[in-house]
Structure formats: C-alpha cells, structure tokens
C-alpha cells in the first residue's frame, strides 16, 4: 500500500514537472508574441503618425551615416557593400528625425530586395534649380512595371512579413512633401531600384565641398 502511494506520488510529481515545463514554454511563446505585437504597433504608429516637420540645420552626410548605422546589422547579415558617392555635404533645413527614418525605410527596402553580397550606392547631386537630390540605388530584384505606380500607396506591400505594412514609401513620400520636396522611384526588374529624395533650394542652407 505504502509503495503504491509512493508510486502515485512519484507519477504525480513527474506529471507536475512536465506541466511546469510546458507552462514555461507557453509563457515564453506568450512573451515573444507580446514583444512582436508591441513592435508591430510601434512600427505602425511611427509610419502612420501625423508628420510634423521641425526643421533644424543638419548635415545630410551625418543623417545618411546615422541611417546607415541603424541598418548596419541588416547590411552585415546580407554582406551588402555600401558605396557613398558624396562629393559634397549640404547643410539642409530639415527634420532630422523624419529624414533619418525615411532613409532607414528606403535602405531596408533595398536590403529586402537583394540577394546576399548586393550593393547600395548613395549619391548626392545638385539639381538644376539649386536644390539637392539624394539617390539610393540598389542592385536588387527591381519592381515590375505594373506595380511601380502603387509603391507610394498606403498599405501596398508585396512582402509576406506581418511587420511590413506597406507604409514605408508612403511615409517617405509624405516626409518629402512636408519638406516642400519630392520622393521619386525608378526601377528595372532584374537590375535594381533607385529612390530619389529631392530638396528644393529653400531647404539648402549651405553646400560644403569635401
Ligand atoms: N528597393 C526596392 N526594390 C524592390 N522593391 C521595392 C523596393 N522598395 C520598395 N519596393 C516595393 O514597394 C513595396 C512598398 O514598399 P514599402 O512602402 O516600404 O512597404 P513594405 O516594405 O512594408 O512592403 C514593397 O513591398 C516592394 O514591393
Ligand atoms: Mg519598406
């Protein structure tokens, strides 16, 4: 009788241990899912927010470098070569946060579109009417002609991930609009994509040769 009791207790203890293990696993899954949900809400809010531009004087080279630092883990994970073709720096009257976020979105799109060992070229140029254009060119898969007109639409995405809401380029477009500038895209399937951020001369405080 006593041995039977011990056996039952041992069995129950084992069952409890299994239950504890499975409960811990469930708690872990809940915690990871909650983190994922928080990240989704955070990204969604960032990209859907009303854009309020607070212009200050900023070096575009600094902002580009900061954006590159933010995406560096992705750059390293795909072994992307980044070529900075910047013959000058410009001090722009722009919103540092929103311009940096826009660049991060564009760089992430480029990296998403690439096979490992791809290349991104960042180029600064002066426009005919004394504005400044930043171009970000990748050698990724490109965008088909029948979808390129939709990439600036809100919620247009060809990606499977639930962290991609199709708001990145919509946000970039609006950021540039609020700066009095523009955001354009050109692409060829199998060759790559270029995104152009153009600031008009009112936004250019100073051009510094480097
Ligand atoms: N550099 C790029 N190369 C290829 N396709 C791109 C690139 N940038 C944007 N796209 C296309 O435009 C769509 C919209 O981009 P975006 O607004 O940033 O949304 P998301 O990245 O969430 O899909 C992407 O899903 C993709 O199909
Ligand atoms: Mg995107």
From TrEMBL:
PANTHER family: PEROXIDE STRESS-ACTIVATED HISTIDINE KINASE MAK3, SENSOR HISTIDINE KINASE. The lineage of its organism: Bacteria, Bacillati, Bacillota, Clostridia, Eubacteriales. Residues 41-203 form the Histidine kinase domain. It comes from the Bacteria. Its EC number is 2.7.13.3. CDD domains: HATPase. GO terms for biological process: phosphorelay signal transduction system. Keywords: ATP-binding, Kinase, Nucleotide-binding, Phosphoprotein, Transferase, Two-component regulatory system. It is an enzyme of class 2 (transferase). GO terms for molecular function: ATP binding; protein histidine kinase activity. This is histidine kinase. InterPro entries: HATPase_C_sf, HATPase_dom, His_kinase_dom, Sig_transdc_His_kin-like_C. It catalyses: ATP + protein L-histidine = ADP + protein N-phospho-L-histidine. PROSITE patterns: HIS_KIN. It comes from Pseudobacteroides cellulosolvens ATCC 35603 = DSM 2933.
């Amino acid at each position: 009788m006593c041995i039977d009791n011990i056996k039952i207790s041992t069995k129950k203890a084992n069952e409890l241990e299994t239950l504890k293990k499975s409960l811990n696993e469930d708690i872990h899954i809940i915690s990871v899912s909650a983190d994922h949900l928080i990240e989704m809400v955070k990204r969604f809010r960032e990209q859907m927010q009303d854009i309020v531009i607070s212009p200050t004087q900023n070096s575009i080279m600094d902002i580009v470098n900061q954006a590159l630092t933010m995406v560096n883990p992705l750059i390293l994970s795909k072994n992307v070569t980044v070529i900075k073709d910047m013959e000058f720096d410009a001090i722009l009257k722009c919103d540092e946060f929103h311009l940096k976020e826009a660049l991060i979105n564009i760089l992430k799109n480029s990296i998403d579109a690439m096979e490992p060992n791809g290349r991104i070229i960042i180029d600064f140029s002066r426009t005919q009417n004394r504005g400044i254009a930043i171009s970000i060119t990748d050698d990724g898969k490109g965008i088909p002609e029948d979808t390129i007109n939709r990439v600036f639409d809100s919620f247009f995405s060809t990606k499977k991930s639930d962290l991609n809401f199709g708001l990145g380029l919509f946000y970039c477009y609006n950021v540039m609009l609020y700066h009095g500038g523009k955001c354009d895209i050109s692409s060829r399937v199998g060759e790559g994509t270029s995104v152009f951020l153009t600031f008009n001369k009112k936004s250019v405080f100073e051009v510094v040769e480097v």
